[in-house]
Amino acid sequence: MISEDARERMRRAYYLEKKTLRQIAREEGFSRVTIQKAISDASPRTYTMTQPRPAIVLGPYQLRVEELQVENEQLPRKQRYTSHKIFELLQAEGYTGSESRIRQYCNLPSRLASIVIKICPSLSVASSHQ
User: Fold this and answer.
1) pTM for the whole thing?
2) How does pLDDT run across 3-17, given as a tens digit for each residue?
3) What is the DSSP annotation of 76-119?
4) Measured distance CA(92)–CA(10) in Å, rounded
């Protein structure tokens, strides 16, 4: 795999210094096909995790947070749980982590979509086709 530095050197040599593919391949030590791919693919590669990190402290309480958020949807607007209230309830149940971690977990946009899919799959399909 080519490093981002090598990709950038190849792009600079081709576009700014106007070198040929063969000349760049000779200098960099890569094949001309690899040089061509590096030049044509202008977007930098981003790292994506293959598996989510394990939540050591929050892990046992994630299901409870999801239950509270589902319950939250049925409550009147003024009586809904805030992230702080969820944190206090979890602390009473033995949670030892930080409040900011609860806030982060509660505010994940993907979490809300997965809750909707779990509760009412037909609703999530209908909303995506509009």
Assistant:
1) 0.47
2) 888 898 999 999 999
3) -GGGPPPHHHHHHHHHHTT--S-HHHHHHHHT-HHHHHHHHHHH
4) 58
Report d(CA 82, CA 125) in Å as an integer. 28
DSSP 4: H
Write the pLDDT tens digit of every residue in 84-94. Answer: 888 898 899 88
Distance linking the first and last C-alpha atoms of the chain: 41
For 13, residues 6+ apart whose C-beta sits below 8 A from its C-beta are: 19, 23, 24, 27, 28
C-beta pairs of 83-88 under 8 Å, 24+ apart in sequence: 83/107
